[in-house]
Design a protein that fits this description.
The protein is α+β, with helices and mostly antiparallel strands. 56% of the residues lie in helices and 10% in strands. The chain is globular, with a radius of gyration of 24 Å. InterPro entries: Cyt_P450, Cyt_P450_E_grp-I, Cyt_P450_sf.
């Protein structure tokens, strides 16, 4: 261990002059160039690869890589990273199908992903491949397909909506206060997923907007894990981890907090189940434990993974959705009309029949997918359908954000927010029918064997929130109309600086 530390330290000090010069050159380049990034494939240099371009576009890497792909003939390009590492980006549906289905066995999570997320996710379903993944997938798939879980999810979402979210919005409307709606929706989603996963209520969405310890630690762990992924020189965070300094000290504290708290909940649930003759609780943790999966680390890993999946994805989708419909009032009116027509229906029937709302959410996620990029690693040499050679060990990223902006996939009107592109209308009855796109053109919920198990749960939650909020309120962004918020990506998408809004109570004359 000491030898590793000494080598890492020596390497770091050797690179300090180089990094300093690199910083100076990049800073000068930014000062004397326009703020617009080029859409050409970035120039690559020996040893450092396309380091200058990566640094210059660090704050808009999603948009930058998307622009490059849209200017290539096959929607694919290779980015040369420092020290000979290459990463392939693609927005080609044929390549996506090749990776996620046809050659699924070749394109795995890979060592980079596993190493980066190992301390946080352990051997959870989102951080493993092979037999371990297959086993967890089978167990989880069985639990997700039960009617009792669906009913439990409905109850959890409805309770959080009516007892917490709606009262907070009502107060904001009366007092004319400004809310960070991104933060509100994140709190809403966090309470929901913790109740569904653990049967535990963190009470994160209270009028006081508390800094719940578990939620704050989880947020920190996600943010710092994302910074590891985006590091231009990954060895730097590994050195900091060896010395337990800086961001790596923070991530260790946050991860320990999350995992210890989760393990305590597992122990409490095990004790509770032993004392009861029948299962009253139907949360995922109870289901796993009652099915005979008593290994503490196993259930802790898998439930933390589900919190990660459900915590920010729905809130990210809803944040951008509410901004988009304010920009498109005709869409908002259609959704409001549909929501009011279904207001007397049971929860599941209500959201199931909200076809126009479903299409609007899909269209919103086309522009702003909650997870804008996903990456796999090739376990052997391979050739993508567009002819791109993939060397063993190379990371290949399918770019969901870019795929929603390709004219060949969505037509000349791709830049228009138009939910009708997902719909067919029966001229006789006037009823809409939803027309899904294939999952390799629209991989917002992944595709193939790893397709998202919680997809239906996510839509249920999102449509319930949309109907519940819009029936009573109008969400009004503070930003000037037509000014697009800055799209950021950690592990999931964010609006830079939050989403400040005011809330207006609707009157009886609204559609």
């Amino acid at each position: 261990m000491m030898i590793d530390l000494e080598l890492s330290t020596s390497l770091l000090f050797c690179l300090i002059p180089f990094l300093f010069l690199l910083f100076i050159k990049t800073t000068l380049a930014n000062l004397f160039s326009s703020n617009k990034s080029t859409s050409k494939i970035p120039k690559s240099y020996p040893i450092i690869g396309s380091c200058f371009s990566i640094l210059a576009n660090k704050e808009r890497r999603i948009q930058w890589t998307s622009d490059i792909m849209q200017n290539t003939s096959n929607l694919t390009f290779t980015l040369n990273r420092p020290f000979g590492f290459r990463q392939i980006f693609t927005a080609n549906p044929a390549n996506v199908q090749h990776m996620l289905k046809t050659q699924f066995h070749i394109y795995q999570k890979g060592d980079v992903f596993k190493t980066t997320m190992a301390d946080f996710l352990g051997d959870g379903i989102f951080n493993v491949d092979g037999d371990i993944w297959k086993y967890q997938r089978q167990v989880s798939s069985h639990e997700f397909n039960t009617k009792s879980l669906r009913k439990f999810v409905e109850t959890v979402v409805d309770t959080e909506l009516n007892e917490r979210l709606i009262p907070i919005l009502a107060t904001a409307a009366v007092e004319k206060t400004v809310l960070d709606f991104q933060d509100i929706l994140q709190r809403f989603a966090f309470d929901n997923i913790c109740k569904i996963a653990f049967g535990y209520d963190p009470a994160y969405l209270l009028p006081s907007l508390p800094q719940a310890k578990f939620a704050v630690a989880f947020e920190e762990a996600v943010k710092l894990s994302s910074e590891r992924f985006n590091a231009i020189f990954p060895f730097v965070w590994k050195i900091k981890r060896n010395f337990n300094i800086g961001s790596e000290k923070k991530i260790r504290v946050a991860v320990n907090e999350v995992r210890q708290f989760a393990k305590e909940l597992v122990k409490e649930k095990q004790k509770e189940l032993k004392e009861k003759s029948s299962l009253d609780s139907v949360d995922l943790l109870s289901r796993f434990l009652s099915s005979g999966h008593s290994d503490e680390d196993f259930v802790t890993d898998i439930v933390i993974s589900f919190i990660l999946a459900g915590r920010d994805t729905t809130s990210a989708a809803l944040t951008w959705f509410f901004w988009l419909i304010f920009e498109h009032p005709e869409t908002e009116n259609q959704i409001l009309k549909e929501a009011k027509a279904k207001s007397e229906s049971p929860v599941y029937d209500e959201v199931k029949d909200m076809i126009y709302t479903h299409a609007s959410l899909c269209e919103s996620m086309r522009f702003y997918p909650p997870i804008p990029i996903d990456t796999k690693a090739a376990t052997e040499d391979n050739i993508l359908p567009d002819g791109t050679f993939v060397k063993k060990g190379t990371r290949v990223s399918y770019h969901i954000y870019a795929m929603g902006r390709v004219e060949n996939l969505w037509g000349k009107d791709w830049a228009e927010f138009r939910p009708e592109r997902w719909l067919d209308k029966d001229e006789a009855s006037g009823n809409w029918t939803f027309v899904a796109r294939d999952t390799y053109t629209y991989p917002v919920f992944q595709a193939g064997p790893r397709i998202c198990l919680g997809k239906e749960m996510a839509f249920l939650q999102m449509k319930r929130v949309v109907a519940g909020v819009l029936r009573r309120f109008k969400v009004v962004p503070l930003a000037e109309k037509g000014v697009e918020p800055v799209f950021l990506s950690y592990l999931t998408a964010k609006m830079k600086g939050g989403f400040p809004v005011t809330i207006e109570e609707r009157n009886g004359t609204d559609i």
